[in-house]
Amino acid sequence: MAQATQTVLQVDDLPGDALDAAAAFHARYMEQARTALDGDCGALALVFPKAPYDHAGWRKAAVADLARFAAPKRVNGVAGNDPEAIGQALEWLAQAEGVTGQLLPLDAQGAGI
Predict the structure, then answer these.
(1) 39: domain range?
(2) Which of the residues in the chain have pLDDT under 70?
(3) What is the maximal distance between C-alpha atoms in the chain?
(4) How confident is the model at residue 59, as a pLDDT?
(5) Does any domain span residue 73?
(6) Is residue 111, in this structure, part of any structural domain at all?
(7) How many contiguous H segments (helices) and E segments (strands) does the chain have?
(8) In a domain, 20, yes or no
(9) Domain with 45 in it: what CATH number?
(10) pTM for the structure as a whole
(11) Measured distance CA(51)–CA(101) in Å, rounded
(12) Residue 112 maps to a domain
């Protein structure tokens, strides 16, 4: 079976406060994500910068809700600041056809998401 194309959406410039960041994400990026999923992509990967622990809930919910919306297309997220780790995670997600609705924290220290 041919591997589906993965579109990557870089999520940047969100406020530091978790509630404000969630609102900004939905205002700035949700329509972009839905448009990508309505197109030819077979999977969408959201790339979030590292943030404090209180951002985990809204990020996980956004990724999971998008995955349900887009099924059978896949939606996942990664969170971190290391470009090499992000690249490796995106490469892995592109071939992981059974993985959807997941947010992968890429911080080896375990502090933040």
Answers:
(1) 6-105
(2) 1-3, 108-113
(3) 43
(4) 98
(5) yes
(6) no
(7) 4, 4
(8) yes
(9) 3.40.50.720
(10) 0.91
(11) 19
(12) no
